[in-house]
TrEMBL record:
Protein name per the record: Dienelactone hydrolase family protein
UniProt lineage: Bacteria, Bacillati, Actinomycetota, Actinomycetes, Propionibacteriales
Domain Dienelactone hydrolase: 122-190
GO molecular-function terms, A-Z: hydrolase activity
Gene source species: Microlunatus aurantiacus
Domain of life, source organism: Bacteria
Keyword Hydrolase part of the UniProt annotation: yes
InterPro entries for this protein: AB_hydrolase_fold, Dienelactn_hydro, Dienelactone_hydrolase-like
Keywords, comma-separated and alphabetical: Hydrolase
Length: 191
């Protein structure tokens, strides 16, 4: 069984993020869900973005580093939307990552935003909606395709629709059918 760190999205550690983590726990995996917002939750992407980039913004890199400091090297990093920044950064820069699962966001492996090349031997799976204004509209799907082209065995799964945060069952954007498929693919990846 895998040890997994789930980094929440821009709205915070919502009940829907916890439910996804619980689904992975139910399959026998050990799952950590660090709260990088210190208990804060937001009702809109705009409010979450204002907090995470405002004058009193948390140091998300430092908080994520602290959250994994005592964990073994061989963990799987899973990020949801803005949480992908931490999951992908750690998968690419912390030695010994067992894998990365990137939901609804992706950072290029070259260029200004890159964390560097993808580490050899680290499997990666990427999921997103094909008409999501953030994933498809802001270039993340292109970054995902770049990883798939460069990394042997990397997988990209696109789901029909435009909902963002579709796997969070505590939000109106939840898509049960797509989430069931995503979860089965994630569990297969972890297996």
């Amino acid at each position: 069984m895998a040890e997994i760190v789930v980094f929440h999205h821009i709205l915070g550690l919502t009940p829907g993020v916890e439910a996804l983590a619980d689904d992975l726990r139910a399959a026998g995996h050990t799952v950590h869900t660090p709260d990088l917002y210190g208990g804060r939750r937001f009702d809109s992407i705009q409010d979450g973005a204002a907090f995470s980039s405002g004058p009193d913004k948390p140091d998300l890199d430092a908080l994520a580093d602290a959250a994994v400091a005592e964990l073994p090297a061989g963990v799987v990093y899973l990020g949801i939307s803005s949480g992908v920044m931490q999951a992908q950064r750690l998968a690419q820069t912390r030695a010994g990552a067992a894998g990365a699962i990137l939901l609804e966001a992706c950072v290029p492996i070259t260029g200004d935003w890159a964390f560097g090349p993808w580490p050899e031997g680290v499997p990666v799976q990427i999921h997103g909606k094909d008409a999501d204004e953030f994933f498809a509209g802001e270039g993340d799907v292109d970054a995902a395709r770049g990883i798939v082209d460069a990394v042997p065995g990397a997988e990209l799964f696109l789901y029909p629709g435009d909902q963002h945060l579709f796997e969070d069952r505590s939000l109106p954007s939840y898509d049960a059918e797509a989430t069931a498929l995503l979860t089965s693919r994630v569990l297969e990846f972890l297996g």
